[in-house]
Amino acid sequence: MIREVELLAIGAGPSSLGLAVAVEELAPDLADSTLVVDRAEEIQWQQGMLLPWAKSQVSFLKDLVTPRDPCSRFSFLNFLRATGRLDEFVTMGTSLPYRLEISEYLRWVANGLTRVRTLLGNACVSVEPQRDRQQAVTGWLTRLADGSAIASRYLVFGVGRDPHIPGVFRDLPADRVVHSTAYRQRIAQLPKGRRVRVALVGGSQSAAEMFRALREDLPDSEIDWLIRSVALNSDESSKFTNELYYPSFVDEFHAAEPGAREQILREMRGTNYSCVTPPMLESIYADLYLDRLHGRDGRRLITMVDVTAARETGGEVVLDLTDRRTGVDTRLRCDLVVLGTGFDSRMPKLVRGLAGSLGLDRISVTRQYRLDLDEPAACYLQGVNEDTHGIADSLLSVLARRAEEITLDIIEHRALMRRPATYTAAS
Fold first, then answer.
1. What are the TM regions of this chain, as residue ranges (predicted)?
2. Domain positions in the chain
3. Section 133-138 average pLDDT
4. Handedness of CA 287, 292, 297, 302 (dihedral sign)
């Protein structure tokens, strides 16, 4: 069965929901033929890391709509008012909501859409171009896990990058490795009361949050936290660097020379990657201090170490470690490897598959996030364009304005496609 829509958005996360709201508010007729599809059974934000105490690292004002239209009914403040928590949130005196609140907000937005439809619990397995007799790309055919398909003129990816599983761990059995994107679900499946030896890998915020969560989720377990750096790094954000996360900075970054872009991304890396927020660092240090004070030795932070091999043998996982300071090799035996290793730097697998079908040697997009194709159909990429649109592209900071830009570009493209062709007679 093939279902036809004009616009299909793949992924029901913040990017696609921000786009859905923009389409409803700016192009109602397009909204009536727009569908958002996601593999998850329900809309949740960062499902694997929905820890009860975890907070967003971005102001609530950078929601799905406020930077585009502060008067939109889909704002986070209106969500708080509608759910009866506005006064309490104001009293909290913070701009950073709990992650659970953001997730609840996204569901509230999805439920409030009146024109755009959503289809949950059905994964997209492939996307291929549809061509006419002249081989022009006139649309897209997206195949779903249940065997059905969706045909669309416009396609927008909002799936984010794939989890990064370092090569050294890829031969381990799947039940021995837990990436942060599946942490909450996988830990919940472990037998209660079982003593587990955990090797936690990575120096990111997600690794730090899992280190804290493991004490509650797997009490009495042994946890060895392995990082390559000499110490955990605090994020380097300041009010000055935060200006580079403004939606308005996208124009400046996009217009910069390649060398300048590389410098900006390199210098901004410490604001978002392989770093931990100062409050989380304070909490972890105090926690480890109390461990020493009370003579607990079940949790260790092991710095300047590389995992050079990993294998399952004798009912356990054995990791070969190399100390970067001394070159000495040791072995660590554990039951479970937990990865806070972030995401694959390549384009998502689904996008790479489409690029192959199109015969593209290189995936690139315009300033309006449209895939570089001179075709009657159009495809847009959200959240994977750091190299051309800046470090904020994968974050909440720019998504409201990006949704507006994509919507306006689709409106313009539709008008162009409907315009009758003009011919000039030969002289």
1. none
2. 2-162+344-418, 167-235+273-339
3. 94
4. positive
Q: Determine how many CB atoms are found less than 10 A away from the CB of residue 331.
A: 9
The whole-number average pLDDT for the span 30-37 is: 98
Same fold, 2-162+344-418 and 167-235+273-339: yes
| Per-residue pLDDT, 194 | 84
pLDDT at 232: 96
pLDDT in tens, 346-387: 999 999 999 999 999 999 999 999 999 989 999 999 999 999
Q: Any idea which architecture 167-235+273-339 has in CATH?
A: 3-Layer(bba) Sandwich (3.50)
At 268-310, the pLDDT tens digits run 999 999 999 999 999 999 999 999 999 999 999 999 999 999 9
* 153 within 8 A of 138, measured Cβ to Cβ: yes
Amino acid in position 394:
S
Calpha distance 190→178 (Å, rounded): 12
Q: Give the H/E segment covering residue 262.
A: helix 258-268
**What's the one-letter identity of residue 199?**
A
CATH 3.50.50.60 fits 2-162+344-418, yes or no: yes
Q: Three-state DSSP class for 340?
A: coil
pTM of the complete model? 0.93
407 contacts: CB under 8 Å, gap ≥ 6 = 19, 22, 23, 26, 27, 30
d(Cα 375, Cα 139) in Å, to the nearest integer? 9
Strand partners, 301: 225
CA dihedral over 374, 389, 43, 348, signed as positive or negative: positive
Q: State how far the Cα of 366 lies from the Cα of 399, in Å rounded to an integer.
A: 16
What percent of the chain is predicted at pLDDT more than 90? 95
How far is 78 from 252, CA to CA, in rounded Å?
32
**DSSP labels for 378-399?**
EEEE-S--HHHH-GGGGSGGGH
Q: What is the pLDDT of residue 420?
A: 52
Alpha-carbon span 340 to 183, nearest angstrom: 10
CB atoms within 10 A of CB 271: 17
